[in-house]
What we know:
Elements: E1 2-4, E2 7-9, E3 12-14, E4 16-19, E5 25-33, H1 41-51, E6 56-60, H2 70-76, H3 79-93, E7 101-111, H4 115-124, E8 128-134, H5 148-151, E9 158-164, H6 172-181, E10 186-190, H7 207-224, E11 229-230
Parallel strand pairs: 5-6, 5-7, 7-8, 8-9, 9-10
Antiparallel strand pairs: 1-4, 2-3, 4-6, 5-11
Amino acid sequence: MYGSQAVPxxxxxxxxxxxxxxxxxxxxxxxxxxxxxxxxxGEKSLARALARNGLAAVVVELFSVAGENALDSYSAxxxxxxxxxxxxxxxxLVSDDVFWALPERVxxxxxxxxxxxxxxxxxxxxxxxxxAVVSTPLTGDExxxxxxxxxxxxxxxxxxxxxxxxxxxxxxxxxxEAQSRNDHGLWLLYEGAGHEFWKEESSAYDSGxxxxxxxxxxxxxxxTLPVAITEDLG
Length: 234
């Protein structure tokens, strides 16, 4: 079961996409945060893949604003605002309006700069059960309120970082540094893969790396989030 649906955030809404298993029950939830490219068919496809494997996925757009330059929208959104929106998206999951979620411990998946609030929330919010990031810059945020590098050594949850070795936007040494600081996490570089290696619609798509990434994410969240409670309708 899937489709586009706005996510209640405070007194307003943010663009979103929901996908969950097509059966009765309550399921572990992964909150997906897109990056500068915004909510695209790539995030939607990824959400459906998670749902086919027993995980509910909610994609919530924190940065992109229709008609605005993506980088300008990101720059205009403070770290505090992004965290508040993420917190309010979580509040929605624990509300009476959502009957299919197991929201006590939620997984976060940050894409590109969406990984920055994901890592910050994982370090500072008790409701985060695990966090994964894909192609997330680990430097370049020195002018922002929160610096991702400051949290790498103190993340209290399971961590998975997935990167392309040929990503022209990210220095491989920063991924190696993340692994050394976050020694209980797993930070991987896919040989020859670029920034959008996981997106089928991208010219940078790498089928081997993309398929492996999805499989690793499914295994990661199934191992680190609550077990689904399904209902016997027979």
